[in-house]
Structures are given as C-alpha cells and as structure tokens.
Design brief:
By secondary structure, the protein is of the alpha/beta class. Helix content is about 45%, strand content about 15%. Helix 8 packs parallel to helix 9. The longest helix is centred in the N-terminal third of the chain and has 26 residues.
Length: about 280
C-alpha cells in the first residue's frame, strides 16, 4: 500500500513538473530577427535554380519568389552552383564514363574535382559570382549540403565582395556550417540544422517543444521522411509563436502543395522552374 501511494505521489509530482515546464515555455515572448526573408508577410515560393537562364526566366517575378542556390565547392576552392540530381546525371554521361578509371576512382563527389574539370564535363555549370553579379537585387538562399572544410568561408568571401551589405540566408543541415556563418556574419538568417530539427521533433512528440531552445531562424525541411511527417500543424504554430518561418519542400505535385497549405507554412520549396510554373497555376496561398 505504501509503495502504491509512493508511486502515485511520484506520478503526481512528475505531472506537476511537466505542466509547470509547459506553462513556463508557452508564457515566453520572442522578438523576430530583422531580415528581408523573415519580414516578408506574403507566402513565398523558394525555387531551386542552377543556371543563369533559369534565373532570368524568373527575374520578373515579384518578391514572393526567392532563388535557392545549391552551392558546392570544388577541390580548388571554387564555389559553383549545381544540384545533386544534376551531378548524379553527369556521372551517367558517356563523357564521364569514358574518363580513365584512375581519374574517377574514389571521386564520386564534386569536392574531389577541379572547377575546370567540372566545366569540361558540364559546360552549363555556373559559379556563384555570376548569379550575384547578374541579380544583385534578388533575395537568395544559399543551400549548403556538403560537409567540406572551409566551404562557409569561401561562400562568405564571395558574398562579401558582391553583396557587402546585403542580408543573406543560409540553409544547411550541417550545424557547424550554419553556426560558423552566423559567427562570421551575424546578420545572416540561418536554418535549423538537421540535429536541431531532430531535437525539435523529439520535444514535439512529448508535447514540450515550447521549452526547447531554438537557434535557427527558419526551418528548411521536407514534409515527410520515410513516410513519416516531419512537420505538424502544432509544430508550425509553435514556430510562428517563436517568430520563426517554416519552408517545406521540395514540392512538385498538387497533393503536396495542398498538404503544405493545410499546415499554414510560410513558403514552399520547389525543385525547378517548371514545377514553379505548374504550381503557380493552382490556387495561390
């Protein structure tokens, strides 16, 4: 009997602690980070592009269209704009297949090739400077997915020359990258890292996301992972309370588009200009 009473008391204290922590978290107030990407009140289309021609096709669109540049670094330190899907296709081309085995062995990633080698394999490739010089008034999100030493420094060096006073945004799953960029250029808006998003989902699953410290300024995330939802309506509501933005994608179908709308996200990420044109025909946000 005493053991039962002790267990009930422990459960009661645990419940009180849970409610106290939850109430405390929900009572906190937050100030938004002043940044053009985060200040935009209209819903956004964040379009992944990799060529100047794609950018020109969208340049007449309004501020609700943001260019997402997948930036990569070559072995000689050059920053190029190239999607991983395009790189996979390049590796299947006859020109790549015809390279001597010694030239490609152990070099499955862009970071192992020089810029001139990539240009020879794929003449349509562009460097980051070309985009910034051609579209100095556009809002960019620099997407960094490669864990390469000093990639953040090389990106910031180029941005510093072309956009010395511009407010930039960086999306990366790599915590070291986003934090390093934030330390060097404090006015940068940066995404939650993969590790931070996993922690966020863990706290959300037990209803205590309100007490978690969130460093990132926005989420840049898939809707699902292995058929499991990564974003919920409750999570979006909490992030909005924290004055954070939620961007989901890549989205290319009407079903995904409607799902994103139902979550009340701030913007959708689309994989290319064709997907953007198709989604634009649907009922806008």
């Amino acid at each position: 009997m005493r053991l039962l009473i002790l267990i009930l008391c422990m459960l009661g204290l645990t419940g009180m602690g849970y409610l106290t922590a939850k109430t405390w978290g929900e009572s906190q107030s937050y100030v938004p980070f002043d940044h053009p990407l985060l200040n935009e009140k209209s819903k956004l289309f964040l379009v992944e592009i990799e060529t100047i021609e794609e950018a020109k096709a969208l340049n007449n669109e309004g501020d609700e269209v943001v260019f997402v540049l997948p930036v990569r670094m070559t072995i000689d330190g050059q920053i190029v704009v190239l999607k991983e899907s395009t790189w996979q296709k390049i590796q299947q081309t006859p020109k790549f297949q015809e390279l001597p085995k010694k030239a490609t062995q152990g070099r499955s990633k862009i970071q192992y090739f020089r810029a001139e080698e990539l240009l020879d394999l794929y003449p349509a490739i562009h460097n980051l400077e070309g985009f910034l010089q051609s579209f100095p008034q556009r809002q960019f999100v620099f997407q960094i997915t490669d864990s390469v030493e000093n990639i953040h420094k090389n990106v910031l060096e180029i941005v510093g020359k072309e956009l010395p006073k511009g407010a930039i945004a960086v999306a990366s799953p790599i915590e070291a990258v986003v934090k390093s960029i934030k330390n060097i250029r404090p006015l940068t808006a940066f995404s939650l890292s993969q590790a931070e998003q996993i922690r966020l989902l863990s706290f959300d699953s037990i209803g205590l996301v309100s007490i978690m410290q969130i460093d990132g300024d926005f989420i840049f995330s898939d809707l699902t992972w292995k058929s499991r939802p990564l974003i919920s309506k409750g999570l979006v509501t909490e992030l909005h309370r924290r004055r954070k933005k939620v961007f989901v994608g890549p989205i290319s179908s009407e079903e995904q588009f409607n799902q994103a709308q139902s979550l009340d996200v701030d913007g959708i990420i689309v994989p290319d200009t064709l997907a953007y044109q198709n989604l634009k025909k649907l009922i806008l946000f």
